[in-house]
Amino acid sequence: MFDTFLLEAIINGVLLGGVLALLALGLNLIFGVIDVVWICYAELVMIGMYTIYWLFVFYGLPLAVAIAAGIAVVAALGVLLHVLVIQPVLGSAPINQLLVTGGVLFFLQASATLAFGIEFRNLGLRMPVVEFGDMFISFARILAFATALVGVLVLWLFLTRTYLGTAIRAISQDREIMPLMGVDARRIYLITSAIGGGMAGVAASLLVLQYDVHPAFGLSFGPITFMVCVMGGLGNMLGGFLAAFVFAQFISVGGYFLHVEWGYVIAFVFFIAMMFVRPKGLFSR
Amino acid sequence: MDRRILAVLGIVALAAVPQLGLGNYHLHLLITVLIWGFVYTAWSVMGRFGMVSLGHGAFLGVGAYGVTMLWNLLGLSPWLGIVVAVALSMLLALLVGYPCFRFRIVGHYFALVTLALGEVVRLTIVGLREQTGGSLGLTVEGVPGGTSLLAMQFGERASFFYLALLVWLAGLWVWRMVDRSMLRYALEASSEDEDAAASIGISVTRAKLAITMLSAAMTTVGGALYAQYQMYVNPETVAGIGISLQIVFAVIAGGLFTQLGPTVGAVFTLLLAETLRVSFGHDIHGLDGTVYGLLLVLFIIYMPKGITGWLAGRLRPAAAATRPA
Q1: 3-class SS at B50?
Q2: Would the ipTM clear 0.85, i.e. be above it?
Q3: Which B-chain residues 123-152 have CB contacts (< 8 A) with chain A?
Q4: Is pTM, for the whole model, over 0.95?
């Protein structure tokens, strides 16, 4: 017998994959170019969600404006993070760079608790549900998936078709030589941080439509994002993109057969197992 | 003065502390410092060789939950439960560590694999809610009267203090043994250059596995001790990314490369948390985390060797300069 619910889980997995892909892309871009892992990436998303929530619910701004402001705020945060935290440790051991953003993770999560309390908050919007056969698919998820795909496409065009994008790709290939060719590494790093932050902002605007926001939100999405990036090969954007969909299927279908946590457990165990089979990422050559 | 005399004097002074008639509160702080100081030492045993684990919550969780569940469900004494939990943890460390080290998963990749491990254990605990109580946590079943050596439960805090003191001292002793062993040189060489280390006959995989399993075993003991002391465990406080990062923060703050560094880190974080709690009360959620996070960032940027490393550099500039970072 054909199982409609299983199909629904698979489709939801694909839709979740789109959001994960967007998250992974931003992180991969930053790692590929600056060679730093922002452990606090999902916390930036959380701040973006709060910004949108606040502007929309409290100041009554139109949703589109709130989202645009949210993206701008997170992009600015990305630049700030780079200037204040990453730049001073660029020359020290890589693991210090990882840990320093771990400090930022604590800081952002706790500041959010301080500022907004631990309540779960949502926009209070009722998003329509799309009925398809016997399946019910949330419209917010379809929107998120579509936006994620568009975002990926725009980023890809930017990286391959513009001068700045080419410079970014070049510097990710050779950090020492490119400055000699007249590319200002500092400026490229700043721009990359802004784009990476902006992508976190876009992800925030998509997630805020589907999930309640609370200070620990980053902790529930952060680890998955890293797993996706590592599984695809850190810095390998195409790999991260594909890995996001693989990972999302494990969570969604695993969660369908068992409890939600088991979906995650299976996904994480699969991740650990894959590290041993393909240590440099699923799609490495 | 000879360092050894100094150490003996220090231990005697510490052992005399419960006889001073301190209140329960101060004794509680001391016990907390000793338990966490031990856990942090366990982490630093491997962390100092550039093997940064963001998943030590996994081993802490196995210790805390393993011992508690064996006691609650099967009535197995925690003394034996610790042995079982340590064996489990070492097996876990072996299963994850062997491929990691064999395939040279280092740096960021290693940190993120261990992060996944910590989350796997936390989610497994939450997922097995029928047995573990899920996110609500689990209470260690008390014995009538509150004191039983067999159950590792002591009504008197002072008794638990001595147990914690012994374990902590054992932790420092292990640290010293590692510090003076050939293993240390093998691992320092490996952390600099694995190929070069292997070429002079160091079995890199084996050396790393040994230190990882040692660190995992110690952390498990710490987790079990913590559960027995608190009489309550919760997946968020003993497993997962939060506690794992807290361990890393405390060690970095205290100092990664000195024997007492992790303990100083435990004192520092506890004093910080208590000061904030006493001055601002429980009502302001998130204040301690904000300060922690900010300090962690500042420590890594301005004082990467931690409090003890900085002190050592101040006291003996020449000696500190020759030590490899």
Answers
A1: coil
A2: no
A3: 123-124, 126-127
A4: no
